[in-house]
Amino acid sequence: MAINPNFHHTGEQLNEELIIIEAAKLNPEQFAPLYEKYYKQIFNYVYQRMDSKDSAYDVTGQVFLKALSNLHKYQFKGVPFASWLYRIAHNEVMQLFRTQKGKRAINADVSDLRYICEENEAPFFEEYIPAIKKLIQELNSEDLQMVELRFFERRPFKEIAEILEITEVNAKVRMYRIIEKLKKSLSKLKV
Whole-prediction pTM value? Predict the structure, then answer.
């Protein structure tokens, strides 16, 4: 599975971003480039998990408000600033789901589902789509989060670990276990 180049940063890009972050810590008006760079990504992340575009806009706004308010707490850990924003977004989305149970949704397209089959070393058949969607919806929220980050957004394990505040090894082990569960379920679909 190819890593999504929209989320991967070179060392030089990380350093340039860190300069912007440090400037924004001193002057909140300097936060604008970070907002402009990541708003669409964070909105898509939130909207992919919700049943309402309006709610997604609201939650995304809250994410950036919290990020700006807590920017002084940000610590660089060798991954893009987006990882910190995604952690905030994840917390905001989970908080919304705790208070409004019916808001949870999974918005995936066929290519996302194809990656799951490829990772499972299973052939992809269009008729599998409803079953794969059902299997994904049956995952607990932590496993679903891993699937969304790895397959729908194609994030590297290092960023997944940072977003979920776990080790990279733990992220790989958890994903392997999820893949094994999905593989068993997919094998039942084969004729």
Answer: 0.63
